[in-house]
Amino acid sequence: MSPAPLGCEVVITRSGAPAMRDRATGELMHPVVGPQVEAERLYVSPARLTERLTERTADPLVVFDVGLGAGSNAIAAWRVAQAMPTAPRRLELVSFERDLSALGLALEPEHATAFGLGGTAGDAARALLATHRHDCARCSWRLIVGELPGAFAGLAHGSADVVFWDPFSPRANPELWTVAAFSALRPLCREGATLHTYSGATATRTALLLAGFWVGWGATTESGKQTTQAATRARDLDRPLDRGFIDRLGRSSAPFPADAPADALCRIRALPQFC
Ligand SMILES: C[S@@+](CC[C@H](N)C(=O)[O-])C[C@H]1O[C@@H](n2cnc3c(N)ncnc32)[C@H](O)[C@@H]1O
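^ thats the input. predicted complex w/ S-adenosylmethionine below
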């Protein structure tokens, strides 16, 4: 018999914000500043959701929320759509998760407000948890339960406009920081798509480059750490990595993910981003 899942607990970070801790890995979701500030700073704001939701197109804005966790990134995006004064482009949120215990705990009455899940936001998240789908005038929200990256299989190519890539660290989730994982995601991204992740690791950046993304520096965390932004087009990066990145690769102690090809450095050097 396999052991029962350990689930999650709510802890208070050193800044005083509540955060969800996964008991099995010991990892915190949105450490230091807490879920609401970090979701806005690292994901929603760099992805320019408000601006993109006002674009004149009949297509919905599709956001892949990779690692739903306690729902903080997803609900921050959901709130942007709810706050739009008119009914512009619809938001389509697609959340991916293998373990729904963090969202269940965040929805408990004593935690819901701290996790941004009070009121109608909580109603939407509860519906998602119960039926794996929630629809309202501005937004549809779908939950795909399963193990990534396999759970990407069968999804329509060219469908995602924005990706929030928020698994645990490579130590806890090695399978999601590989060339293989980003290569499985890349065809699902539409022209003009952007990806946002808290990781600023060199190996994350080279995995994204090897999977066919353009890669740049992302937002800076509250504690001054660099994050990463990737895109299907160069012009959608705020600050693309430059040739200095290639020079520094030689000095990095962990330049590539475990599944990088033997000629990874040559391949990256030859990318149009660095020529
Ligand atoms: C850092 S937490 C996500 C936090 C979340 N984005 C939020 O805003 O609350 C990472 C999540 O990824 C999920 N996860 C990790 N590996 C996974 C895998 N291989 N497939 C699906 N989900 C996975 C974990 O269960 C966990 O909930």
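The domain at 34-274 is CATH 3.40.50.150 (Rossmann fold).
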